Structures are given as structure tokens and as C-alpha cells.
Amino acid sequence: MTEASGPQMSRIQQKNRDLILQGALQAFSTHGLRGATIDQIARAAGLSKPNVLYYFGSKDEIHKALLTTLLDMWLAPMQQIDPEGEPLVEVLSYVRSKMLMSRDYPRESRLFAHEILQGAPHLTEILGGGLREIVDRTVVVLERWMAEGRLARVEPRHLIFSIWSMTQHYADFETQVRAVLGAGRDPIDEGAVFLDDLYRKLLTP
């Protein structure tokens, strides 16, 4: 653990750490993990190389921290599903939130997808631990709603997989989507309407 990675970081330290992660996102998105350098990350962050290395010991450490932060961000909307809410409203709100993330964070989505395609070497423990725990808790809620007749019965984990794939497609394959739709059309707005209708029909009892 580096000197500035403990729980007692000052606001300046947290700000610098966030700048480094944003710089890393730019560098990794442009050059990939292998092509990106600490110098590039430092320039993108507006900090010196020694300053970057004060917070993170290596490029791989920065990459892992960035991916962990992204995973937390991806999972936040799922954790906001209210077990006591109206089931269809909660699921459709989750779908909408994921679509908005594809609009607002396309680089982050593509970076995360690239990590998964590489076998998730930096996220193996997290994917098998924290991610699975959150999904399992959501599955319990979905199964209860289905047992109560408030959602149509489908396999809940595959329902979650389908939401991930359908919403993140608009970020990960943005160039393809825009090329097919043509100029003057909004992929996210159109996609959100389509997916709302699709999941509403699928899940209405």
C-alpha cells in the first residue's frame, strides 16, 4: 500500500487521487494498458510523475484501482433497487439508469469490457466476491417478487445479464450503433424507449 492510499487521506490527497484515475482513464482508453505509461497518466492528470507514484506504486496498481472504482459505479444502480418498491418500476428504473451510464460513461464501459474480455486478471477476486454477493441479493428480491406474482417468472440471473448486455452495448459498440442509425438520431433515447417496452412486456405478470 502506498503512503497516500490509507483511510485518512486529506481532501487534497483525494482530489489528486481522483485526478490520477481520470488521467489513467484517458491514457488507458487511448493507448490500452500495455501502451499507456506513467508519464502519459501524469500529463493527463496535470501532475508530476513523482506525484503520481506517491499515490500509486505502479501502472498496474493504477489500472486495478480504476477498474475497482468503475465496478463500484456500475453496481451502484443495482444496489438502489428498493425491495419494498413497485417491482416493475424498480426494474425499469434500473434499466434506465444503466442506459444513462452508457451515455455518460462510454469510455469507462469500454475499458471495463476490455478487462472482462481479457479474462479479468485484475478483478478476479472482486468478480467472485463483491459482485456475486450484490447480484445474489438482487436475485433474492426478484425471486420474491416473482413468487408473489408481481413479476412474470424468468430466470433472474439471466435477466440481469440481459440488462447488462443490452444497455452496455450502446457504449461498447457506440460507433456501430451510430453508423447503423444514421445522423440525427439519439441512440440512448431511442434505446431507452425500446428497452422499457421490451422489459415491460417481458415482466408484466
TrEMBL record:
Q: Which domain of life is it from?
A: Bacteria
An annotated Gene Ontology molecular function: DNA-binding transcription factor activity
**Protein name, please?**
TetR family transcriptional regulator
Instruction: Show the SUPFAM superfamilies listed in the entry.
Output: Homeodomain-like, Tetracyclin repressor-like, C-terminal domain
The reply on keyword Cytoplasm is no
Provide the alphabetized UniProt keywords: DNA-binding
Q: Which InterPro entries match?
A: Homeodomain-like_sf, HTH-type_TetR-like_transc_reg, HTH_TetR, Tet_transcr_reg_TetR-rel_C_sf, Tscrpt_reg_YcdC_C
Q: Which GO terms describe its biological process?
A: negative regulation of DNA-templated transcription
Cross-referenced PANTHER family, in alphabetical order? HTH-TYPE TRANSCRIPTIONAL REGULATOR RUTR
Q: What is the lineage of its organism?
A: Bacteria, Pseudomonadati, Pseudomonadota, Alphaproteobacteria, Rhodobacterales
DNA-binding region residue numbers: 37-56
Q: Where is the HTH tetR-type domain positioned along the sequence?
A: 14-74
| Organism expressing this protein natively | Paracoccus liaowanqingii
Mind telling me which residue stretches traverse the membrane in this protein?
none
